Amino acid sequence: MQHADEEEDINKVLRYFSYEHFYVIYCKFWELDTDHDFLIDKENLIRYGNHALTYRIVDRVFSQVARKFTSKAEGKMGYEDFVYFILSEEDKSSEPSLEYWFKCIDLDGNGILTRNEMQFFYEEQLHRMECMAQEPVLFEDILCQIIDMIGPEDESYITLHDLKGCKLSGSVFNILFNLNKFMAFETRDPFLIRQRENPTLTDWDRFAHREYIRLSMEEDVEDASNGSAEVWDESLEAPF
Questions:
Q1: What is this structure's pTM?
Q2: Is the distance from CB of 170 to CB of 99 less than 8 angstroms?
Q3: pLDDT at site 192
Q4: From CA 76, how far away is CA 54, in angstroms rounded?
């Protein structure tokens, strides 16, 4: 409280509360909640991030295996449920996020991710790549890449402990069910990324800041277009 009180710009205090973060989460929820009943169904959520997620992972989110919804409406998530989802989706480096997505991929709930479970989710990614005329990356190659990235104790399966001990764990989940982030990961330039990124910020902080700027610019454009008629009326009085 003292730290927040001493800082003039509350948006600089990211550990406790940020208006930017709230604004981004609320706007994202509002964009998906087309009928504005403060509830989101599967068809709403599949549009998240420009249709970045697969149907299979959205089904798992709505199975509530990772976290029970607080929403009382069957088959729908409320605002609080969406907050947990978006924080998990946009910052896969955090432990709560790793636990969230691990439970989603662990289809039989036995505490390990097997080749078959990962292949089940990757199949849809592969199909989407083919539909978009992208060069498909076969699962065998992806599995080798995942094993190299994580370095699990036993290469026949991956545990939550393995994931928590690796900085690249978030990318594994993107490979399995987020096509946009998977493609960005495949074409990344690690040197440029290190140059641009502030190491003190989390993935969520960076995402929220980018989105806040984008949303603010959209709002400014909308305000300008709404005010254009008034500006035009005044200009009619100007002498020629």
A1: 0.84
A2: no
A3: 56
A4: 18
